[in-house]
Write a structure and sequence with these properties.
It is a single chain. It is elongated and about 140 Å long. It is built from 13 helices and ten strands. With 355 residues, the chain is an alpha/beta fold. It has four domains: 3-63, no CATH class; 73-150, no CATH class; 156-279, 5'-nuclease (Rossmann fold); 283-352, Nucleic acid-binding proteins (OB fold (Dihydrolipoamide Acetyltransferase, E2P)).
Length: 355
Amino acid sequence: MSTEFVFRLVGMVVFSILGVYFGIFLAQETDQSPEVAAVLMGLVGSLVGLILTPYVTTRPMRAIRRVLLSVSTQTLVSGLAGLVVGLIIAALLTFPLSLLPEPLSKVLPFVGVLLFSYFGVAVFVMRQNDIFAMFRQLQSRTAEAETAESPIVSRTILLDTSVIIDGRIADIARTGFLSGTLLIPRFVLNELQYIADSSDSLRRQRGRRGIEVISQLQKDTSVPVRINDMNVEGVREVDDKLVVLARQLRCPILTNDFNLNRIAELQGVTILNVNELANAVKLVFLPGESLDVTVIQEGKEIGQGVGYLDDGTMVVVEDGRGYLDKEVPVTVTKVLQTAAGRMIFARLDKENGSH
């Protein structure tokens, strides 16, 4: 049963009752039979109610609804704000206008309400873009001020299994460079537990180290750590679950897994790679600079020796094979950046004591 049909029935009953009363009144004025007049006018009223009710109830409401749906939210809000401002101004002018002599004291307040309401709506709708631009600018300034006052911007960072097992995340968190909450999903914790229970001794040690790293992170109060039971239905692989969860939460993934890095970047997920961070903070040497390095093994080429800096950077020393297990001064000749990291090629600095 439609709404319009219900209103037609209600209107028919209401107008029938009004018709009966009108028929009785009309019979008394014209000396007609009240019963006949009541029945006739009741029938006329029911017919009028059945036909005209939608035109004064549902159809005007539908027209108003269509107009409101066609108007944008910005225009609607601007119009309502202008109406409120116009009514406030008209209310403030009501008292002084009422002190004028009649008939001005009765007519002008009503005219003022109409005029100021119209001008308020018209002005606010015409300048709606400027008004909303001003509010957006104020909102952005407030957000910038809150960000400046807050030393740590709250955000969520998902932890991958590999970065937990790696262990360097505990030291990075302790330095205070990570801001926000470290989130460990339950399925990552379950994978660590599975690795820790493995029959392979190496995998078992890695899993247990990952669990110890989580314990260290929880004890360290510099960065909050939260374990969440959120899961991704219909996905079995842990890496795929992390990517989907990161997209849902709109947060980055902290990892050192190269494959996860590539997959996540293809799907628009931000990746914080610990290996890239380690490469970024390594010391930078330019050709011609001198440094001391301990040659610990032979190189691939004839006469080469290989040493390592404290940050793990490989140094290939020309003619350094004869200085195994010795610290020698060298001069940098070339710096090569590879996918595995940074390599430094150097020659013996004989002027500074190599012989």
